[in-house]
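Notes from hallway chat w/ T.B., transcribed later so I don't forget. T.B. wanted the structure written out for a chain they're using in a teaching module, and asked if we could keep both sequence and structure tokens in one place. Agreed to drop them here.
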Amino acid sequence: MAIQWKTHAFPASRSMLSCVLLVVMVSGCSKEPQDWEAASSADTEASYETYLAEHADGEHAADANARLRSIRGDRAWQELSGNHSAEALGAFVEAYPEHEAIDEARFLHRIHTQAEAFAAEDMKIVGAEITGAENGGVGFEFDEPLTQPGLGMVSTSMGLQSTADLVFDPDDLVAGTHVQLYMIFIETELPGMTIKHWTPVGFVAD
């Protein structure tokens, strides 16, 4: 005699459904540590973006966002090396006030704002030592002679210049301090003539 097997469908109990749901939830939660480990190990803009796309409110979301801003800020700062305009520097200062290079960025922004105000044709940085700092003025001795094309002369030093238009940290205004001196090449109108010469716009201690 043939034996016939019969199967019966039993309705899923609430406890079974709860267990299945719990397993799914635990499985989803356990994925975040691995995703964070992968993102932080890669330490790239793309890896953190991927982590945040999956875990926008995750345990490490704040860390991922902070690192993402740092990476983007580093890239923006590197791109500025070929575009030190007052506008570009100002945009960086506004966008990344927490960046490690913010003090340098603010200094350069002020320098280039001054240079543009004077309609500078060129800018260069020369090493110099402060020889005097008194009565609202500052003097410099250059590490190397500075050629003044428009004046037909070579300068080895510069007498007291008014600090009113110079960009600097007051703590650096001390005789004997060695500085990086920012010089701009400008055109100056004098009675009966126009001359072009190098003039300081700011300095920062080494």
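Follow-up for T.B.: The beta strands are 122-134, 137-148, 153-162, 178-190, 193-205. Might be a good example for the class.
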